[in-house]
Task: inverse folding
């Protein structure tokens, strides 16, 4: 059963970090044990869950990736204020990893063995990736078993998607043949506009049943929550944003169950 997922799109501002935090928190609310991994040097995932500057003596994901030998992932994981939700944090030091990884052995596979360790203690691992297709994102894709692709419902939604698909095929061919698209998530959705309806149709024509039925609306509570260091379900559980991510978690779990049943 697949349980390591990269939340990825090389475009910025599509809701990768928001989705990582709020899908993970919603899964934790459904009694799943979840680890979120911050692979973005901006460390927005770490600050958005209220853990900026909080890390174990062993350090952050940067130290874990650049260690001389494979460390124990448990030495880097910190708990969050959400029961069942843990974090592998990042800080600005991760900026240097793109350069430092180039000279390291197995540079594109540094994250994979760490997250394989995590499968013992966590039901799901969600990786927040940077808005680029560099070595940090490549490490996430090599470590992952599935990709969740957030797409905004605007004119530029499909821009760069061909490049992402090319990267997916290269990763499948060279490093991770089992990697596949788990789902495409439409974010900042507003079907009251002709543009929103048109983009939704184009995405569904392109990806078919990979598109999640749940769409994430524009919502002020979703935008506010990270400034409080909280997922939206703790900031305002009755908001449209919270309702949407709870619905996404239910759909995500159902897809996983159906996929597992199909493999048996």
Result:
């Amino acid at each position: 059963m697949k349980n390591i997922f990269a939340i990825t799109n090389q475009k910025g501002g599509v809701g990768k970090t928001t989705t990582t935090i709020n899908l993970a928190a919603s899964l934790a609310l459904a009694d799943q044990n979840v680890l979120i991994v911050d692979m973005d040097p901006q460390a927005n995932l770490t600050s958005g869950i209220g853990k900026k500057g909080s890390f174990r003596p062993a350090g952050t994901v940067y130290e874990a990736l650049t260690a001389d030998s494979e460390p124990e992932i448990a030495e880097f994981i910190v708990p969050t204020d959400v029961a069942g939700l843990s974090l592998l944090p990042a800080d600005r030091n991760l900026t240097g990893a793109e350069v430092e990884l180039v000279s390291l052995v197995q540079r594109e596979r540094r994250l994979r063995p760490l997250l394989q360790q995590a499968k013992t203690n966590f039901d799901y691992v969600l990786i927040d990736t940077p808005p680029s297709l560099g070595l940090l994102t490549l490490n996430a894709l090599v470590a992952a078993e599935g990709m969740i692709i957030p797409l905004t419902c605007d004119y530029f939604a499909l821009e760069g998607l061909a490049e992402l698909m090319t990267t997916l095929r290269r990763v499948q061919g060279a490093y991770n043949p089992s990697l596949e698209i788990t789902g495409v998530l439409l974010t900042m959705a507003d079907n009251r506009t002709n543009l929103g309806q048109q983009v939704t149709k184009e995405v569904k024509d392109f990806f078919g049943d990979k598109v999640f039925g749940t769409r994430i609306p524009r919502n002020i509570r979703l935008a506010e929550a990270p400034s409080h260091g909280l997922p939206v379900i703790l900031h305002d559980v009755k908001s449209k944003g919270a309702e949407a991510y709870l619905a996404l978690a239910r759909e995500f779990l159902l897809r996983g169950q159906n996929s597992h049943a199909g493999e048996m």
Remarks:
- The longest strand covers residues 180-187.
- The mean pLDDT is 91.
